[in-house]
Amino acid sequence: MGYRSENGKILSLFVPERSERNVYKSENEQHFQQVLFRLKEKGMVIIMKKVCMIVQDPNVKGGVAAVTSGYRGSILEEYFSIKYVESYRDGTRIQKMLKALSGYLHFLWTLFVFKPQIVHIHSSFGPSFYRKLPYIYLSSTLGIPIINHIHGSELKKFYYDASKQKQKLIKKAWQKCDKIIALSESWKDELSNIIHEEKIEVINNYAKPSNSKCEYTLCNRILFMGLINQMKGCYDIVKVANQVRQRFPQCRFVIAGVGESDELLKYSKKYGVQEILEFPGWIGEDEKNKLLLVSDVFFLPSYSEGMPMSILEAMGFGLPIVSTNVGGIGKLVIDDYNGFLCEPGNIACFSESICKLLENERLRTEFGTNSASIIANDFSLKAHIDKLRKVYMELGG
Length: 397
Prior knowledge:
Helix content: 40-55%
Mean pLDDT: 88
Largest sheet: 6 strands, parallel
Strand order of the largest sheet: 5-4-6-7-8-9
Structural class: alpha/beta
Distance between the termini: 8 Å
Shape: globular
């Protein structure tokens, strides 16, 4: 029972109340929806492929939760029967431990009662990898196809700098997965050095275009969103702020997120720029949208990335981007089209790029418009779900 594939056209298997089976083919999504509506009207039973998705609590601070939260209530749930198992939450060590334990118990119930045909795991590097091992080994033991959706960005530290024993464990776990989802072609190339390339599918992250219209009145506000640490280039922001303020004394650098904010503020005092830095902390959806609407440039000087949700969200709001040419960023930001790309740590390049955008309204507007267009055409939620749906269709019988 469930989905059957024929040239990728069959979207679902529908079974009437009597036992005979009818398979309906759909040439496009609109036709599928029409067929679905007619069958529901006739009281027909709809059997959909069952997917167990291992996710974080929706309120977790970070890009992984932002990605998986978008699935809830989306059209993906019309194509597949999805059971979400939450494996992680923010909080104290005890709270995290209890969440992990409840996740394992929920997963056991899901395996033997819900009986999924696919297990889709959202994972990262570090502790996340170890938390996901029971899900991988249990699913593999029961012969359930596994999709490992990897969101991590520090592969060198996680794998190449690790001991031989840890490398062996990582390889063994990943080899048990039927599909590995990479966030970009560059990450596929990196992962293919560890696991067979044919197992790896590229599915980019997505953004939801803003319905609000950005006003291009200059505010001299440069926005960063994400974890505040060295890997994200946050200490470079201080040096860049010191240079940009020489030409734009009224500029403000908003550093939104959690992490080393106290250390960064202390560091900024060495350059005397603490007065032009703002630390709003981790911001909710409404506050984030307000900041995106009143900012002129989005700045992410990362040293390592997968495909950052923060850039995608900023592009969805029509912002020009200044960032680095690492990970999947080069697929989002086209140099001198919707932003500027610099080598990590190149303070002069960052500073000059930001100043160019602040002093040239036409360029700011053009780059911002191009950012929004890229999101609408290539990085929509629908495009993301279409690719994911294709992977689901290939697995699970």
